[in-house]
From TrEMBL:
Keywords: Hydrolase
Protein name: PaaI family thioesterase
Hydrolase listed as a keyword: yes
Domain of life: Bacteria
Domain Thioesterase: 43-120
């Protein structure tokens, strides 16, 4: 795992089993292998899991930092998720892309697809870079 992927991880990612598989300027991809722990009483992946994946991918898309030993931090201001189809066990992939904004506030959109490429959920959100994270150089870790 690269340094930037380690920086993106937090306890909540680890709890759910998420991992960052791609992260560049204005793009982030997060994967999760869904199993019985992620299912609701109907036997499908809980919507909160999909929303968490989208929140992470959309937020990280605007927080990439290529400078070693530094990090950019942010917070979600709003997030709207639309569920398109049921997700079963297996690999789920959330992709987030920055669509616009400025130095502090940015907007991202994205989607979650299943192992067969079927669309499961879409989202759009507004995020704010924390103080000091406005610059692509970021802050010391």
């Amino acid at each position: 795992m690269s340094e930037s992927e380690r920086t993106a991880l937090m306890g909540y990612h680890e709890l759910l089993g998420m991992r960052v598989v791609e992260w560049t300027e204005e793009l982030a991809v997060v994967e999760l292998v869904a199993d019985e722990r992620h299912l609701n009483r109907s036997g499908i992946v809980h919507g909160g899991v999909l929303t968490s994946m989208l929140d992470s991918a959309l937020s990280l898309a605007g927080l990439h930092c290529a400078t070693p030993g530094r990090v950019r931090r942010g917070m979600t201001l709003s997030l709207t998720t639309t569920f398109v189809g049921p997700a079963g066990a297996g690999v789920l992939r959330a992709t987030g892309r920055v669509r616009g904004g400025g130095r502090k506030v940015y907007m991202s959109s994205g989607e979650v697809v299943g192992a067969d490429g079927e669309l499961l959920a879409i989202a759009e959100g507004t995020f704010r870079r924390r103080s000091g994270s406005e610059s692509p150089v970021g802050l010391p870790e």
